[in-house]
Each structure stands twice: as structure tokens, then as C-alpha cells.
Design goal:
Shape: globular
Helix content: 25-40%
Strand content: 5-15%
Largest sheet: 7 strands, mixed
């Protein structure tokens, strides 16, 4: 039986009187809904606390209408008339809000559905906004939500020094096993925030071993290319394709599930992946045609990734193996992305995603031992992080 849970938003609405008389802002998006599927800002507006004084939108905009790396604009909410301030604009400076953004507020509510991967940008927006708000004397209340990948599994290497970015804001493994509230506590300790400035409204009923599929709650896409929970399970590895010239399926109806490029033999790639027996994943040979972004209008050969056992999936390991395999078998179809990536131009996109240059350099040199050394490093990174995060965990 699926587990019934109440999120931080659901719990706050039962005590909405705590906000009465306070001017509060809300950083949220389309997946910020109540247990009965009411958008957060409308549910709050109908409660005893009254509507927010301001809304803040992360990457993709408050309503999730923009594609990745597309600026969203300040606007007004059509239902409440409340101003919406964009926290994702045309340049890197737009990612760090100024104190003026929170002027006149007593409380900043943060209610964002994360997907459990280091490079998903909502956590960076939440931490950076909270830091500015706390420094300005505004209380920050985080309305916690589940990590859809569970809180029990940690996977991958940590981000190295010099590779900080919007997709590498935190020194933690790619799959960190934290909820957004726990990330905020973790970073708050590192950044020495005033402990009185941050309050996490925890969930009721969520356990660290829960995957999203264990919950009695529908999946609402938190961003345009995260349409299903299976997409989230694939994403820690599938997102690495963004650092290459391969298509990660943006511009199709199955982003991150469809992967490939012109010149790839789908059958040969599928057979090579199936031989390696990645737990919880199967692969179907296919062709697809993106309607925008990479290889728009071109027929790509590749794979459709199918999740067969979510609890067994170790997607990041599959992702680094996938790129190594395609680079070896289909070198004419493979290249590293060279364009600006999340406003960064001086380091390759793949290095920003991986959190270092060791992986790329090992593949380029053909040094199999260096490649294996890098993979073995994960175990130490995972163990050390598990110990470091222990003091901020909120759920059993």
C-alpha cells in the first residue's frame, strides 16, 4: 500500500494563523501543490494568513513555461495580482538575488520539489535566496517535500574545488539522498547562517527508504523536461548527456528517456548496454526527431531507457558508462559540448556536471586505469558524505 504523507506545505496550512499579520513571500513553482492538488499560492491566499506579498520563480519561471537556460521575466500572477519576481534571468548575476528583492518581507517561504540530483538547479536557487533573505533579517521557512530517489542511497563523486556553478553549487555526491530541507540545513551549517533564521517544516509520514513510487501522491512535473517520476530516476545519469553533442531527448515527448544522435546504430548500442546488465534499467533501440535544441529536425539513432526496478537503479554509474561507450563505439557522433552552459564559458559543461575534469581527461587519454581510479574514488566520497550529512537528517 502506498504511504500517505503530508508535505511541509500541507502542515503549514493547518497552522496558517502563524503567518497572520506577517508580510511573506513564496518561492515556488508548478509542482508546489497541496495534497488535494491546489497550487501553493492559491491555497495560502484562501487561508487565514491571506495571500503572499510576493512570488518568486526559479529557472523555467513560476509556472514552468520556459525551457532550460531561457530567462523568465518579472510579471504578475493573473489570479491574485501578486507580483512574481524572476530568480533566473539573462546572466549569472541574476541567479543571486539582491536584498531589495525581499525588502518589506518578514518571512520567505520556500516550497520547491527537488529531484535528488546535485545539478538540478532549484536547490541552488533556494539556498542562494535564503542566504540573502537571512542576511536581510527575513525569516526563511522551508516547506519540505520528498526526495523522489529516496533518502537512503548516495551515489557518485563529490564536486571538486574550482568547479562551482549553478549546476554544481554544492560539494556533495551527485545523488545525495537529502530532501530540500536537509540541503538547506547542510548548507546553512557550512555557511554559518543564523540558526534562528531558518525553519524547516518537515513532512509527516515520509521515510528515507521511500521512493516516489512508494507514496500516495501523484507526480507533478517540477520542470518542463521532468514529465514523469521515471524521468527523475534516470536523470542523475541522463543529465550528463547535456555535456555532450548528443541529444538528451529535449524537444521530444520523452526527455532523458530518449538519448542519441545521428550516426548511432540503435541496435548495436542497445546490445552493448544490455550486455552490461545495469540494475533496474532496460534499453530499447529506437529513432527519434527532436523538434528543438540539439539535432532539431534530424533523425537520431539511439535508445529509449526503461525503468524496470526503481530501487535498484544507479543511474549516475550508468550515465558515465554510457558516455564512455558511445565515445568509443561511435566517435563520429560524439563530442563534448563547447557552448556556454548555465552562463559558464571557461570550463567544459561535462566538467561542471561531473564536478571535476578527471572523468573527461581519462576518456580523452584512453587511460583505462585512470578511469577506474576515478570510479573507485566514489566509495570514499560517498562514505565521507554519509558521515557529514548525519547531523542534518530530519527523517528516520
Amino acid at each position: 500500500m502506498a504511504a500517505p504523507i503530508r508535505t511541509g506545505l500541507d502542515r503549514l496550512l493547518r497552522q496558517a494563523a502563524l503567518l497572520k499579520g506577517k508580510r511573506y513571500g513564496l518561492l515556488a513553482h508548478g509542482a508546489s501543490v497541496t495534497v488535494d492538488l491546489r497550487p501553493a499560492h492559491l491555497a495560502l491566499a484562501g487561508a487565514s494568513c491571506g495571500p503572499p506579498a510576493a512570488l518568486f520563480g526559479p529557472e523555467h519561471g513560476y509556472y514552468g513555461v520556459e525551457q532550460d537556460m531561457v530567462a523568465s521575466r518579472d510579471e504578475k500572477d493573473p489570479w491574485t495580482g501578486v507580483p512574481i519576481l524572476s530568480l533566473y534571468g539573462d546572466d549569472a548575476d541574476s541567479l543571486q538575488p539582491s536584498a531589495d528583492a525581499f525588502a518589506g518581507l518578514d518571512v520567505l517561504l520556500i516550497d520547491l520539489q527537488d529531484v535528488g540530483s546535485r545539478y538540478y538547479t532549484y536547490a541552488a536557487t533556494a539556498v542562494w535566496a535564503a542566504e540573502v533573505a537571512i542576511q536581510a533579517g527575513v525569516e526563511v521557512w522551508v516547506l519540505d517535500r520528498p526526495n523522489p530517489l529516496s533518502g537512503a542511497v548516495i551515489e557518485g563523486n563529490r564536486r571538486g574545488e574550482g568547479f562551482e556553478s549553478f549546476v554544481g553549487a554544492f560539494d556533495m555526491p551527485v545523488r545525495h539522498g537529502l530532501t530540500l530541507g536537509e540541503i538547506m540545513r547542510f548548507e546553512g551549517k557550512r555557511r554559518q547562517w543564523d540558526e534562528q533564521g531558518l525553519q524547516v517544516w518537515t513532512m509527516a509520514g515520509w521515510r528515507r527508504t521511500h521512493l516516489w513510487s512508494d507514496l500516495d501522491r501523484p507526480w507533478i512535473a517540477p520542470s518542463p523536461n521532468m514529465p514523469t517520476v521515471d524521468t527523475a530516476y534516470i536523470y542523475p545519469g541522463g543529465c550528463l548527456v547535456e555535456g555532450t553533442t548528443l541529444s538528451e531527448g529535449r524537444g521530444t515527448t520523452r526527455p532523458f528517456s530518449l538519448l542519441g544522435a545521428p550516426g548511432i546504430d540503435p541496435k548495436a548500442l542497445t546490445e552493448a548496454l544490455e550486455e552490461r546488465r545495469f540494475p533496474g534499467l532496460r534499453f530499447i533501440p529506437t529513432y527519434f526527431k527532436p523538434q528543438f535544441q540539439k539535432h532539431a529536425g534530424e533523425v537520431c539513432g539511439g535508445i529509449e531507457v526503461v525503468v524496470t526496478a526503481a530501487a535498484e537503479v544507479r543511474s549516475y554509474r550508468w550515465g558515465v558508462e554510457l558516455l564512455a561507450l558511445i565515445r568509443e563505439r561511435f566517435p563520429e557522433a560524439f563530442g563534448w559540448r563547447s557552448e556556454a552552459y548555465e552562463f559558464v564559458t571557461d570550463r567544459p559543461a561535462i566538467d561542471l556536471l561531473v564536478g571535476g575534469s578527471e572523468y573527461r581527461q581519462a576518456l580523452e587519454s584512453g587511460d583505462r586505469e585512470a578511469w577506474q581510479d576515478w570510479l573507485r574514488q566514489w566509495r570514499d566520497d560517498e562514505q565521507i558524505f554519509r558521515q557529514e550529512r548525519a547531523s542534518v537528517l530530519l527523517y528516520s
